[in-house]
Amino acid sequence: MQHFWKQLAWTLGASVVLCALLMGLGVWMTPPWKVEPLDEHISLSSSNTAIEAKGIHTTTEGKYKVRETHRTLTVSGGRQVDAILREPIGAPGKLPAVQFIHGAGTGDATTNSDIAHALASAGIVTLVQSKRLDDYSMLHRDYEASATDYLTSINTLRSLPNVDANKVGIYAESEGTWITTIITKRDPSIAFTVLVSAPVFSARQQMAVGATEYLHIIGAPEGVEGIVPKMLSLNPGMLGLEYASFNAADYRNTLTMPLLVVYGTLDRSMPVEQGAQQLLQDANSVGNTNTMVRYYPTNHQIRLGSSLSKPGLPLPDQYTHDIESWVNTVAAGATAGDWTTPKIAGSQPFQQFAVPTDIRPGLITSFNVLVTMFVFIVLMWVVTVVLCIASHLGRKKRAHVSTDANGRTLMHRFTKQTQTLIVTNIVLAPIITLGFLAYFVFTAVSALNLQDHATALSIGWVGLRVATVISVALLCWLWVRMFFFYGPGRFDADDPEPEARMARGHCAIVACLSLCVLVALALGVFFNLVS
Prior knowledge:
The chain is α/β, with parallel strands linked by helices.
């Protein structure tokens, strides 16, 4: 019994030391930034989103019937894409025109057909084209090539006989607003821009806010929210994802034309307040004061009925009227001093978290490192299992028996207690890993669907952290038995005759298992399971 309590004391001491070392590693792995609450908020003077200018009367929606023409456009690289041109029938003179630019997740020419049709019925020619997908995927997106494609379509609009080439502008959504700023840098003659649900900042910065907001809504533990800066700081490495580092700030100073910024107040993925403030600031920095912001009680798609983006949801009643009024008014020559309605109006927005400015990584700088660690864990786990099987089969074939100087019989083998510790460590490592992966998937699904699972997430997180601490204790217990009580040249005092001791081959098993568990714990530190 005294032998047991001595082992227990050593195990507790070693566990405390290892936990302290892991916590220190966690501090080293933590980036020098975190997502903080937003302090400065926008205050609106009016909830009325109507847009009017003195002395300018615009065409009302529905005045003209609309002709739809399906076309095939040749874009960069000789590729062809489908497009739908909508024109007001019977509208006199040269008309303003709008090129639609898709956001992420949309790409068909039929997208936003209700908005494009409504604008055309108010005397505005619209063109919506399909997005090229040969250079666009989850892992790779060429924004420069996309800008070239859309510029080709813009020039197509300018060449139409019923379009005023000097009054062709852009309506862009979400990711498409980044592409728009590339276009405006290449072609300063763009007449106007409507930026809807604009991320404004780089993908990493914007996603830091969006991911934290979603996790906060579903009740994720603080430790889970703390993973966001670590993941978004990483170089994507083998994944590609170059677009995640797209530096939007290099292009925002090109917004020298009349600018309308639109956000939905239920959009949790975008910096709805900071984004508008930044765009106004950037426009003003290049002398553009002809800017306007409108907020609607809608989701990311500017649709009613759900805070999530779903097909078939309706637009706010006033939305297309506001867009048409603004486009027709700026096409008529309205300047910054002509507006009779507020520059910023609509539903009161609230952005809970601020966009981080410093997104430097901690100790781990690349996604490749995480992958390498995971592969190493799997490799060491497999080697350990193979060595254990080989050791078991070898014992069946030969006795592994020797005698010491006193003539005592020595059995070179693991004792039952050590065997139990080894098997438990071998089993626990994949259980924790698979458990974390399942927890991660559950969290991601809950966040994407904005489902509040605070209780389940809390219980699961506590369970993973407790399992990790148990893994630390079991590994330390194994080390104590190996290095202080039972190892090469040492006898197991708790084991009955014949007395047992370990050979060097047994040390190889424990070494591989220790490396497997230690790297797994280091990976757990990165994901805040030890902190």
